[in-house]
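so i finally got all the pieces together for this one. its two components total, 519 residues if u count the protein bits. some of the lines might not be protein, just check the labels. i wanna see the whole assembly predicted at once instead of chain by chain like last time, that was a mess tbh
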Amino acid sequence: MKTLLDRVPHEFLWLFGSLMGLLAIASAIGWMLARRDNDARKAASVANLNERINAWWVMVAILAIAFLAGSTTTLVLLALASFFALREFITLTPSRPGDRLPLFLSFFVIIPAQYALIGTEQYGIFAIFIPVYAFLLLPSIAAMRSDIDDFLSRSAKQQWGLMVTVYCLSHAGALLMLPIEQGRNGLLLFYLLLVVQMSDVMQYVFGKLFGKTKIAPVVSPSKTVEGFVGGGLAATLIGGAMWWITPFTPPQSAAIAAIVVIMGFLGGLTLSAVKRSLGAKDWGVMIEGHGGMLDRTDSICFAAPVFFHVVRWFYA
Amino acid sequence: MRPSSALLVGVVKLLVGAYARWVGSAPGPAQRIYFANHTSHIDTLAIWSSLPRELRRRTRPIAARDYWGKGVRKYIATKGFGAVLIDRTRGDPLVDPLEPLRASLRDGDSLIIFPEGTRGTSATPAEFRSGLFRLAGEFPTVELIPVYLDNLHRSLPKGALLPVPVVCTVRFGAALAPQPGEAKESFLARARDAVIALSTKPA
């Protein structure tokens, strides 16, 4: 036990302890709200609140696992997240018999390989494996099946799915291989998740309170200028206040949080446009209330690669 | 639950989700025959995995002996999901292939059957064979529940070796019974329509 605690930075214990306390209070409040007699609209809001609180528990559990069980476990969890997100994406994307082998390889070879490259710290191949090799070879395999119906559209959609759900998301895991001060990579991953999640929550809250001007009503009716600015600023300040778990100074930490906020916002917006172009309001409706991995990871998918490169360029 | 069953359910859920949607009926202890469209080898496992654990123990899928009756598959079918193996080939014309089904129903088990008899390639099921009608007549207290399996023809269609992960929904409809004096053809057509009706998603 002593060696384990030696390995864990003391910031972790602070973070972990205070988060557990806050979450326990939040869960208790959520539980009491759910027990009250609510009309349908209120009940939906309370259910939404409780879902968010539960998402936080998951995040704290990931943080704990990242430190206590080590980076391999963290990478396996992230690989599973990629697997489920890609499964949702493919479910909503039309495919033909000729796509079966490329799809099989995407799930059972490319996902494990991408995360194994992180685990073995092969940054050079990690960065080009999907954009170059998967991009060239998967359509080649499909082409051998001589099925030209919608060929370009099918290949493009599958590559897009791989890029977002595997390549982009894997950059969150890649934070673990950055050569920063020993033992602090997990905190960096936590910082990213915290800022993205805070940004989502705060934009939701500010949007509910002050939202008037819609940013892109067709793509995402719930996104408003007031929500984005208010929520984004709040998340930026929270990110700035978390500088002590990162290699950044406080102003740098706020600036980087702002970048994460903007990328997360763009991720939510862009994937919403993708969903709608596939004919769905959200991934949950088309697969009937289940899944939703992409709904939960859309902001992270866009924020992770940019955050990774900012840290790699300036701090590693 | 046996470890082999738990592992099997885990693999099926990872691969195709197998999320149950009870549209016209609710999961319950009543003895039932679930009948579904058939497009994939995973069908049997998907329905079985989508049931609540306590119902799984008393629900036995019907599996063809020529496919599930030997080697690893036999181990999966009998130890994993307690399948009832039946002969599709009718090697002995004097033996009624429905006999093992009757035996399970008499024991009080629920069954999962595919009245098309074989796997199809399209999203709409082929004509139903008569076994369902005969069992309905012989076991009037057993509820007949139509089931529609979404998307599985994309995961592991007939003739394919490698499964592709795709989210599959298992929709359970309202129980159906033959009217007094109803002809076989009429009942089988109604049963098939009940399955097809579940293929359009509720708005």
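The CA atoms of residues 17 and 167 of chain B lie 5 Å apart.
Chain B has one domain: 3-197.
anyway lmk what u think
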